[in-house]
Design a protein that fits this description.
The protein is α+β, with helices and mostly antiparallel strands. Helix 1 packs antiparallel against helix 2.
């Protein structure tokens, strides 16, 4: 389903951009017939600005690659009061399971864990063991699905809420 989501998103963003440009051109063509040379020059400036806005809107809709680097950047920029460590072994916490993608430390104490999960990987034993390890140590645990959009504000909100 992820492949179809990407195709649909790409098709929609390009279709919206094209439709916006077509509307702008039709309006300009209709008004250009009734304009003086000075008004036409001003209209061309407006057309350039509108075209730039349409291009910006289309590029803003371009999907961002959601991966470990994306989350590392968000953590570094928005949670600078924490020391961020990657690939924490649950064995270091006295438990088992998969590695924890990010650990947020303050004063040498682990304050929260962020785990990145592939589609349907939150249902396997390694994930459940890692989550149980954190729960037994009363360490806040949060996961993000990599196939989901995970917009920056959403990620910041969820991690901030987890950390209290």
């Amino acid at each position: 389903m992820g492949l179809f989501d990407k195709i649909i998103k790409k098709t929609l963003s390009s279709a919206v951009g094209e439709a916006l440009e077509n509307v702008i051109e039709k309006v300009e063509d209709k008004t250009a017939l009734d304009l003086t040379p000075d008004e036409a020059a001003k209209s061309e400036t407006g057309r350039t600005a509108a075209s730039t806005a349409a291009s910006s809107a289309a590029s803003a809709a371009a999907p961002v690659t959601i991966d470990k680097d994306y989350f590392a950047k968000i953590l570094a920029e928005n949670f600078s009061e924490y020391e961020v460590k990657q690939d924490i072994s649950p064995a270091s916490l006295g438990g088992g399971g998969r590695n924890l993608d990010f650990g947020l430390y303050k004063g040498g104490t682990l304050k929260g864990v962020v785990v990145l999960v592939e589609h349907n990987r939150d249902n396997n034993k390694a994930y459940k063991d890692a989550k149980a390890t954190c729960a037994s140590k009363k360490i806040p645990f949060i996961n993000f699905y990599l196939h989901m959009p995970n917009e920056k504000d959403f990620v910041i909100y969820r991690i901030g809420h987890m950390l209290g």
